[in-house]
Every structure is written in C-alpha cells, then in structure tokens.
C-alpha cells in the first residue's frame, strides 16, 4: 500500500493530476501574463505523501519563485492554499483557524488509513456535482441538464485570477451528458435573485421595478383616490411584492432601504388628503408601518415560530434560558480576524439579525406561547418606537432599526 514515487503498486492510478493549482491571491500575484511550470507527479504531498502535480511560478518582478506543497485533495479538505497553507477564507494558519472554530483534525496517522481517508475524500468531492443527477436517476426522474444553473461565491474577486485561461475549469461543472454548467453572476431561486457578490442589490432592484410597474398599473386603472380603496390595492398587489421572502434578504444598507421605502412613499402621496404631508406624518395618519419596520417584524415572528416549533429550524437556531434575562436566542460567534466583508455579511444574515431583534423583546413577551398573543404584544411593543425610516431629504436620528432605538431609548421600550 506504499504511495511513494518509486512504488509500483496499483495505487499509482490514484495519484493526483490537475491543470491549475488552488492558490490565494497573495501567492498568485497580480501579473496577468504569468507563466507556470507544470510537472506531473513532481513530488509527494507533505500531508498525505501521495504524488501530485506540482506547479512552479514567479508571482511578480524581483520576487522568489513559488511552488505547490500539498495536493489539491488535502487543500480542498482543509480549505487552504496549496503553497502557503493559509486558510482561503480567513487568511489564517490552519492551527489558529481550527482552534478558533473548534475544528478537529481527523486525518489518520498510518499510511494505509491515510490513503483510504484521502480516497474517500476524493470520492466525496467528485460526487458533489452529480449528486442531484444521481438522485433523480434513483427516483426515476429525468432532469433537463441544460437548465441547471450554479452560482459561485468567492472572496477573491481579483480580475487577474478570472482572466487566467485555466480558471473556468476550476469553477465549471460537467454533467454526465457532457453539458458544461458555467457559474452565473445572478441566479433566481424560488423568486429570490441570488448574486455571486453575496449582496441583495440585484434582487432589491428587480423587486422595486416590479412594484413600481404594479403601482403605475393601479393608478392608471383606478380613478378613486380615497384611503380605503388605495390602501386596499396597495396592500394586496404592491406591498406583497415588496415583502416576498423579505426575512431572507432584509437589507442593512441605507441606499437599499431607501430604494424600497420610496415605492411606498410615492404611492401614499397619491392618496386623497395626504399629498401635502411629509412621509413620516403620512405613515401616522394612514396607520402604516414603514417597510423596514415590517421586515423586522417578520424576522421576529419567524424566530418565535422556530422557538415554538411552528416553523422548521433548518438553520440551527438555539435558545438559552437565563434566570434574569429569560429566554434568548443564541447568536453564533464570528471570527474577529476575518475579512471586513465577511463580518459585514455575517451581521446581515437572518441567523444573526433576527436573533438580535428577538433578544431585545421583553422577557415576558418572548415567553408568550400563543401566536396571536405574541403578535398583539409585539404590536404594542413596536408602537412605542418612533418609525422614521431613512429616505432622501430627511435626517433621522438613527437608521430606524429596533436595535438602534433600543440603544438610544432603553427605558421607553416595554410591552406594557
């Protein structure tokens, strides 16, 4: 079962071949015309001792040559660069990352077990792309492979990396029938546009455009501008578009909040008796919540449903009961050494944002077991917070989030 270069065993067929290495931006360099020397089975991997394809290159002028040190299977298993062995996501040494995230190294020590472990990892990695197709075959289903779409999330957005000739081979998938699935910038999944930039800007823009078209149709088809008729039409055909799956893409950027809020602002201006009022005053007169406040309300209600098992806990929510603070949602920790963009994405996720909103509620409200009672108490709680959403031309005291009002007015928030 030896795996050295001189061994003449059947395991030679399991030696690794590749066309392009897995590298971080620092090791790759910024030279778009870089040349690489490729040597098949050039050396043994420093982790699993299996021969693999070695790459050698110069990242830039007056820089030392670099080469790959570990095979791609070990690099994918550990999510590290093949050269510097730093984590591709956080840029940290593996030992520091594993200690911070409490990860364990399960790689066997003996040669035979290590080789068997790596072969299983290779099989699992190769099976990932075709698992959906295999599942369809086992269930007697025929999938249209040309309609498959894939979106790739990558912290390394360097144009130099994307312009390399072998880059597409590392991000594309091939179906059993030979159809190549190329990563897309935007993929629509159940009506929500997912972007490879990890942002919700494209989805929000499409949502705003659809709501504006519906608002224009309502204003052209109906002449009655009375509050009852206008609000009924707005709530049924316009606001429903603006709030579809909103807990998933609830934005934190002021510009995106303003884009959504401007739809409600412009429509309510057409209501009889509201054209001369400011937007914040119109909300009070029409007894409407801002769209921002409604999105936060949906997030809180969904967390309560997860707590009381009225909604599936598919994202791993956990709760702790404190003797003084009551029942609270546990907020997962974030690595403080991670990139700023990663921490920003972490703060905007539903898992974190919704837990923070749920935790600011009074303990007696969080402990409510009736959905109707919880909604009634939540409504009374939110009425005590001023609703001043950020819109162009207005200067609010904060970003209007319940979290911000909690910090500025802690004594005025209660469900009584």
What is the element layout, followed by pairings?
Layout: H1 25-28, E1 36-44, E2 51-57, E3 66-67, H2 72-78, H3 94-101, H4 111-128, H5 131-138, H6 159-163, H7 167-171, E4 173-174, E5 180-181, E6 186-189, E7 192-195, H8 201-221, H9 227-242, H10 246-249, H11 254-268, H12 279-286, H13 291-307, E8 319-322, E9 326-329, H14 340-348, H15 350-359, H16 363-366, H17 371-383, H18 402-408
Antiparallel strand pairs: 1-2, 2-3, 4-5, 6-7, 8-9
Helix pairs in contact: 2-4, 8-9, 8-11, 9-11, 13-15, 13-17
Shape: elongated
Average pLDDT, rounded to a whole number, is 80
SSE pattern: HEEEHHHHHHEEEEHHHHHHEEHHHHH
What separation lies between the terminal Cα atoms?
72 Å
Question: What is the count of helical runs?
Answer: 18
Q: Residue ranges: pLDDT <50 for 5 or more in a row?
A: 411-416
Report the major sheet. 3 strands, antiparallel
The assigned structural class equals: mainly alpha
Percent strand: 5-15%
Number of strands: 9
Task: Please state the CA-atom Rg, rounded to the nearest Å.
Answer: 27 Å
The strands making up the biggest β-sheet line up spatially as 1-2-3
Residue share in helices?
A: 40-55%
């Amino acid at each position: 079962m030896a795996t050295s270069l001189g061994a003449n065993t059947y395991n030679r067929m399991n030696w690794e071949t590749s066309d392009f290495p897995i590298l971080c931006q620092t090791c790759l360099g910024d030279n778009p015309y870089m040349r690489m020397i490729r040597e098949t089975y050039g050396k043994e991997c420093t982790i699993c001792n299996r021969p693999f394809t070695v790459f050698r290159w110069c990242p830039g002028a007056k820089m030392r040559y670099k080469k790959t040190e570990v095979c791609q299977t070990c690099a994918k298993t550990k999510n590290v660069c093949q050269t510097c062995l730093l984590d591709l996501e956080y840029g940290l040494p593996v030992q520091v990352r594993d200690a911070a995230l409490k990860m364990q190294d399960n790689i066997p020590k003996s040669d035979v077990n290590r080789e068997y472990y790596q072969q299983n990892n290779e099989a699992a990695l190769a099976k990932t792309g075709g698992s959906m197709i295999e599942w369809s075959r086992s269930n007697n289903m025929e999938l249209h492979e040309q309609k498959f779409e894939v979106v790739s999330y990558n912290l390394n957005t360097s144009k130099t990396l994307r312009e390399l000739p072998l880059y597409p081979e590392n991000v594309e998938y091939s179906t059993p029938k030979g159809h190549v699935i190329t990563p897309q910038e935007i993929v629509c999944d159940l009506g929500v546009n997912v972007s490879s930039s990890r942002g919700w800007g494209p989805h929000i823009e499409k949502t705003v455009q659809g709501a504006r078209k519906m608002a224009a149709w309502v204003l052209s088809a109906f002449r009655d501008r009375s509050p009852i008729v206008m609000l009924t039409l707005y709530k049924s055909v316009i606001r429903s578009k603006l709030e579809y799956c909103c807990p998933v893409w609830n934005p934190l950027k002021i510009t995106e909040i303003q884009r959504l809020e401007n739809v409600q602002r412009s429509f309510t201006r057409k209501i009889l008796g509201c054209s001369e009022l400011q937007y914040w005053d119109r909300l009070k007169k029409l007894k409407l919540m801002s769209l921002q406040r409604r999105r936060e309300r949906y997030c809180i209600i969904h967390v309560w449903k997860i707590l009381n098992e009225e909604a599936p806990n598919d994202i791993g929510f956990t709760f702790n009961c404190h003797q003084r603070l009551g029942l609270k949602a546990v907020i997962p920790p974030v690595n403080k050494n991670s990139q700023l963009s990663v921490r920003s994405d972490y703060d905007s996720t539903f898992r974190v944002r919704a837990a923070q909103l749920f935790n600011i509620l009074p303990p007696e409200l969080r402990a409510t077991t009736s959905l109707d009672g919880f909604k009634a108490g939540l409504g009374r709680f939110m009425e005590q917070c001023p609703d001043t959403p950020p819109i162009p031309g207005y200067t609010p005291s904060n970003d209007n989030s319940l979290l911000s009002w909690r910090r500025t007015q802690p004594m005025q928030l209660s469900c009584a």
